[in-house]
Design brief:
Layout lengths: L5 E8 L4 E8 L18 E9 L2 E9 L2
Amino acid sequence: MPKGNCLRGVLKDERGRVCRTIEKKVVREPEQVTWDGLNDLPYGKYTLELSHEEEEMSMNLVKRI
């Protein structure tokens, strides 16, 4: 997990393979983050894991038409 004011995101497919990652230094809160390159992913189920300082969260996502 990153230390300090760093936001880290990991997107995994339904097999648990890492598809995309993002790491961004948070200068101020609230901060808007744009994650490019997600349109290229195939349709399917994904898990998004986000961490910032001591906080972590995970959510399930579905990409479909």
